[in-house]
Design the sequence.
């Protein structure tokens, strides 16, 4: 009978080798053990993320506030009045937001694609 893995003779041979002091064939699994390169890579990544976090990426601009309105009396107008004036709601809409603008741009792109396909179909005939 062959001494393949999982057979009784393989098990006996493995135990005999252990008793003789031979090194173990099986590897022990240590999930928390890191290779030497991982701590270096993690340290570099952490340093780069700290540098990126330290950069001033603020989008707040004091000039966008409406200083003619008191923030205590009407915070919404104080914060948003200039933006609302610069981005009016279209007359045919009851509301207008970022997703509405994206929907309009998407429709414009789809319309251009269909027109281009129609022109190409007309010239291909």
Sequence:
């Amino acid at each position: 009978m062959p001494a393949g893995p999982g057979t009784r003779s393989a098990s006996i041979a493995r135990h005999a080798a252990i008793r003789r002091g031979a090194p173990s064939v099986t590897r022990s699994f240590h999930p928390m053990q890191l290779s030497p390169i991982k701590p270096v890579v993690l340290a570099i990544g952490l340093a780069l993320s700290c540098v990126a976090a330290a950069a001033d990426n603020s989008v707040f601009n004091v000039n966008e506030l409406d200083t003619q309105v008191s923030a205590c009396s009407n915070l919404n107008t104080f914060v948003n009045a200039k933006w609302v004036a610069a981005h009016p709601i279209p007359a045919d809409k009851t509301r207008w937001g970022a997703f509405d603008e994206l929907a309009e741009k998407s429709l414009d792109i789809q319309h251009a694609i269909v027109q281009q396909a129609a022109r190409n179909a007309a010239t291909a005939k």
Notes: The CA atoms of residues 113 and 119 lie 10 Å apart. Residues 98-124 form the longest helix (27 residues). The helical segments are 8-20, 37-54, 75-86, 98-124. The two ends are 77 Å apart (CA to CA).
